[in-house]
Specification:
Blueprint (H helix, E strand, L loop, with lengths): L4 E6 L4 H6 L3 H10 L3 E4 L7 H10 L4 E6 L1 H11 L5 E6 L5 H5 L6 H7 L4 E10 L2 E3 L2 E5 H12 L3 H18 L3 E7 L4 E6 L1 E6 L20 E6 L4 H13 L8 E6 L2 E4 L4 E6 L2 E6 L2 E14 L10 H8 L1
Helix pairs in contact: 7-8
Pfam family, one: YegS_C
GO molecular function, one term: kinase activity
Keywords: ATP-binding, Kinase, Nucleotide-binding, Transferase
């Protein structure tokens, strides 16, 4: 195997990176100590878009996304169909895509495994043309996430304040109407408290909490929650931990290849791969199969499920 050349893209603003005292030079030295060919950015203080452009213009084969899920999604969105591969050095809190791909979470283990990682071609989804890698959530969850961001770094008193806000917000939650049109041409009105559109499908197995084994099956999954009280949220979370959450009576699951979601509101607050933002309606979702190349540990070859099989109840 010809040695790869890596471009290190470190998110120095990541809370985890700052808390651990990780620097670009530390990572560069760790690469070099293992005989890995790596380059670092000429202008690490530049804006995100400028840094991405520089990484894509470099003569390296692999761009290393060193940061959390926001860094991975932002870089992956720019890199899909670029001809370069992305390596994920997980330096965030959740590290969702890294966990899905069984990528080591320890820096030293990751560096040791990097030369033997192979190319995986995964799906990239879009909402109104904006790429995402995990899911987009509408309704109650983005409101709770926005509240969480307001208390980040605020200490124990801020955490208690958020917990009080969380309970009050869930208790006051009301359903709202959305018009949903799927790729099958069917249109329906749903009154929901939360709705998510995910890349591929989340697994149902003990201990699998928002994890996906298949990232390149080429479909979207629509999760509709009509009622979401505090007790039902706890029940759903417990179901995810023990592996029977898809049987929840309040949850409807549907595999689609595209979906459009309309609201009376001109804009909706949504959470895209963990980041809360406002998007104009309607929300039009699509998928670009296997359009992003990611390095990860080798995985055994498995038959790829078809969309028709998933429609038959295997989501």
């Amino acid at each position: 195997m010809t040695p790869r050349r890596y471009h290190l893209f470190l998110n120095t603003q990541s809370g985890t990176v700052q808390a651990a005292g990780i620097t670009e030079k530390m990572l560069y030295d760790a690469f070099v100590a293992r005989g890995l060919d790596v380059v670092i950015e000429k202008n690490p203080e530049a804006g995100f878009a400028e840094r991405v452009e520089s990484a894509l213009a470099s003569d390296t084969e692999v761009v290393v996304a060193a940061g959390g899920d926001g860094t991975v999604t932002g870089l992956g969105a720019a890199m899909h169909e670029s001809g370069k591969a992305m390596a994920i050095l997980p330096l965030g809190t959740a590290n969702l895509l890294a966990r899905d791909l069984s990528i080591p979470l320890d820096i030293n283990e990751w560096l040791d495994a990097l030369p033997t990682m192979t190319e995986h071609h995964i799906d990239v989804c879009t909402v109104n043309g904006e790429p995402f890698l995990h899911k987009v959530v509408i309704g109650l969850i983005p409101d709770l996430a926005a509240g969480r961001e307001r208390i980040r770094g605020g200490g124990f008193r801020a955490l208690l304040g958020f917990l009080s806000y969380f309970v009050r917000r869930v208790a006051r939650a009301r359903r709202f109407a959305l018009e949903i049109t799927t790729s099958k041409g069917e249109t329906r009105i749903e009154r929901v408290q939360a709705l998510a559109v995910a890349s591929n499908a989340y697994d149902e197995a003990p201990g699998h909490f928002f994890s996906r084994e298949r990232l390149n099956a080429g479909f979207l999954t629509l999760y509709v929650l009509r009622h979401l009280t505090l007790g039902k949220m706890i029940k759903l979370a417990a179901g995810m931990l023990i592996g029977n959450w898809k049987q929840d009576e309040e949850l409807e699951i549907e595999a689609v290849q595209a979906v459009s979601i309309r609201s009376k509101k001109p804009r909706l607050q949504v959470m895209i791969d963990g980041e809360v933002e406002s998007i104009a309606t309607p929300l039009n979702f699509a998928i670009r199969p296997r359009s992003l190349t990611v390095l990860a540990p080798p995985a055994p070859d498995e038959p790829r499920a078809t969309f028709n099989e998933l429609q038959a109840g295997e989501v």
